[in-house]
Structures are given as C-alpha cells and as structure tokens.
Amino acid sequence: MAYSDKVLDHYSNPRNVGSLDKNSSEVGTGLVGAPECGDVMKLQIKVNPQTNVIEDAKFKTFGCGSAIASSSLATEWVKGKTVDEALQIKNTEIVKELSLPPVKIHCSVLAEDAIRAAIHDWKKKQDVAKPATVAAQ
Amino acid sequence: MSTDVKTIPQAEHIAPEGVKLPVYMDNHATTPMDPRVLEEMLPYFMEKFGNAASRNHSFGWAGEEGVEIARERVAKLVGATTKEIIFTSGATESDNLAIKGVAEMYREKGNHIITAVTEHKAVLDTCKRLEKYGYRVTYLPVQKDGLVDLEELKRAMDDKTILVTIMWANNEIGVLQPVAEIGKLCRERGIIFHTDATQAVGKVPVDVNKNNIDVMSISAHKMYGPKGVGALYVRRKNPRVQISAIIDGGGHERGMRSGTLNVPGIVGLGKACAIASEEMAKEACHLAGLRNRLRDKIMGGLDEVYINGSMEHRLPGNLNISFAYVEGESLLMGINDIAVSSGSACTSATLEPSYVLKALGTGDDLAHSSIRFGIGRFNTEAEVDYVADRVVETVTRLRELSPLYEMAKEGVDLKSVKWAAE
Known about the structure:
heterodimer, A: Sufe protein. Chain: A, three-stranded antiparallel β-sheet, B: 2 domains, four-stranded antiparallel β-sheet, 14 strands, globular
C-alpha cells in the first residue's frame, strides 16, 4: 500500500515517543486497542493544574504505520492545547492531515479514543485529588 | 518516572557489497524466471508459434513437439508417465479441476470430501462451493506444528468419502504434510487422494508412486518458470482415476482440459522441471543453509521471536517468524527495501490475520506480528546477512515504540489485561 509522505515521515521520525509517570496526579494515561486486533496505543498527557494546558505528551504504539503516524500526530496536536480544546480534536482531521485511505480510518479513530482516554484518566485523578486538597487546608 | 525514547530515525540504507536493493525474498509468492527457462521459451513465441493441435502442418508439429518434450520433463520430475500430465493455466485451475472433477465423476459413490484448514484458498473455496451443491466437507484441524493428525484423518473417513485433498507443502509456513501416509490411508479405503503440490514440486523430492498420490497440482511460477501455466497429474493405473472436465470445448488434453495449449508457457514449465530434476538436491542444501543462517542471525539478535510451524518437516527455503510486540505491517514498512510477506491483518485484503497461523494456535497478536521469508535460487549469503541485520534493527526500533514491549518488560501479563477493544 502506498503511504502519504506525512505518514512515512511520522513513521520514520516519530514525535514524542516515550512514557510519562503514570502515577503522577498531573499525568493522564490512555491505553486503547487490543493486541488481538493488531493495534494498541498508549497516549499520555501532562497537564498544568493551574491552566489546564497540556504541557507534554508522549506515546507508544503497537500497530501499522498509519497507527504509529496517527498517534504521533495526536501528541503533536494536543501539546499546548487546554484539555477542553484537546477534546475537540476529531479523527476526521487526522485522516485529512495524514491522507489516510479508507481501510486505515480506524487508526485515526483509535488516536481520538486515546486522547479522550488520557483526558478521562487525568480528570478522574483531579476529582479524587480535589477533596483531598480541601481536607488538607 | 518519565522516560524519553530517542528513537533512531529510519535511515536510508546503503546496500553492502554484493547486495542489490531491493532484495527479493518472497519466493513463495512467485519466483523470478530462470534465464535458461526464458531462453527455451523464446522460439515458441515467433518462429514456432503453431497451434499444437494443428495436426496437418509443420507449424503445428513444432508446437506439439515442444509440448510433448515438456510433458516428458514434468512427468520425469514427479515419477509419472506422460499420459498422466494435463496442462492447465496454473495451480488454482489444477486444484479446481481436481476437486470439482473428482466430485462430479464419483458423485454416485459418495459426497464426502476431507481437507485441512490450512489449505490454500484455491482448495478451501472450491470445497466451500461444493458444499452448496450438496457435498459434505470435513475441514481437519492441524496440530501445533502445522501437521495433520493421521488418527484424526482416519476418524473423519467414512463410506461416503470420495476425496481427500491435503497440500504437500504449505505456502505460508512451508510445513510438509505426511503425504505418503495420507495416500496409504486413502488407498486402503479406495478414496482418491489429491495433493496441491504447488510449493513442493521442484523443491523437495516428489514421486507420485512412492507417495501414493492419485491427483496432484503443479505450478510453473513457483519453480522459476513462467506465470499462467501449471499441470495436473491424474493417475492412470493402480488405481485408474477419472475426472470430469470443468472447461468444455475442443477436447484438448484428452478431454480433461479444453483450450488451445499455452505452448511457450508449457515449454517453460518443462524446462523449469528439467532444471529442478538436475539441481534440486544440491539447491535444497544451499537453501536450507541460507535459511538456517537467517534464522540463527535473527534469533541471536532478538528475544521473543517465535518460529511458526515445524522446523523438521519444512521446505528448505521457508522461514516464518513472529516478532512479539511488533505489528507486521509496520515491520514491513521499516524493511521496505526487502520484499517479504506478513500474516498481519493490515497486509491482507480481508483485514483478518493469517488463518494458517491461527490454525496452529498462534494467538491473533502473534499472527499480526509474523513475517514469511521465502529464500530462493537467486538469493545469496550477503543478502541473507543484510536482511537479518535490517530485521533485527527494525524490530528493535519498533519495540522501543511498542507499549506492549514496555508492559511486558515491566512484568505485566498481557493476557490478563482487560483491553478496551472496539
């Protein structure tokens, strides 16, 4: 299958590969997909608690070239956005940016899911953390 | 703790001395033609263009002579007689002709067919079609090493069984079935035994008498011959096997396969068989040596790689390996100057991982991670070394990117994780 230059670029030089401390209260982790399906994405965000801005993002992906490119692009896009802005990212925008063929659309869906899962995980931590903070005061 | 992975960007690769890129190592898909085959074929396009069925002039006789020499060469390679060789357009047609032809001819005797789940689609889909016409088909499972269990085969046979069709060598994992034993079981019960020997003929010794074969499919382009031509062996005595034609017409090939003969193609198939008769034994040692070198280099450079299928009962040039935690298509992208195949869903038209690997009990995750290397006549030691180095380097790079590899290294049991699958 012929890949777009952008997919090839993300595949050859993936951005933001790595891991953040999943136990930190500022970090949200999204792990989506399944090995049996041939795609697993782990996307992590580090959020500034004052501004809700995503200051860092990292990913690791088991999957085809399009899956790697979609998650690499997702980390680029969420960085610098607030959590609410990041939730607006749509898989169709990823499809467009990477010129993914129809059979690879599920890779972009997975990347969107990964962003949402990471934010969901971070929000859960904030809900737990808040009452604790109040109690400490 | 945060970790930053500095992945090595994929570099442009420079071919080492003696290696021409891209490297072709997909010889189960097809083989390049041997130049000696092409040379033999060339006169049959222009000077000797006659229709082999033209009995009344020299143009026809020249064509017929070419065909009959080829028939002798094919017959010799597999231990058959010339009257038992029917030329076809390739192994898919041969499989169709064998299975449908036997099914129709022996319909009065019974309606049960036995095959195996790891067969080529040309066999499986033909059997499926016959099911629609009232035939009963048993699809035998295979053991972990890819071999059919003979006891299971025996249990599947009944008094309505007319045909057993089991391949000689598998196209994905190169596993060789115990055809002689299968043939013996069939012979004892008066059941016809067809084998799809597409990957085996010219690679391993094939003798239709020693191996108790009744009907056998042969292809030219898997053995350094041209595409679009093949043959079907149909036993003439002990026992005599009859098949109905599936293509009607001028009654060529003793009525079993009508259609003007593809003379240049048939001549090419004949020459490919003649070369194999001469060189197969030596070539097999060479290929097995290269294959084992590739395996040892890959397994020496990486952990958690798994060979799919029996190493003992295997084509000399075949290696099928799963690289845990790395998806096959992304691996192919990384070694894009090497032509191989993957069992990953992403590389198949159906988006399903390899049914052959699944039949071995290989999990879907490892099926997605598999690569088939098919080493052939024209591969060199330098190419094998280059391929091994590139595979080790690319798998290492992709594992740094793989959340599964990270989790496994942290001691997480991936089987116990509840995946948020679609």
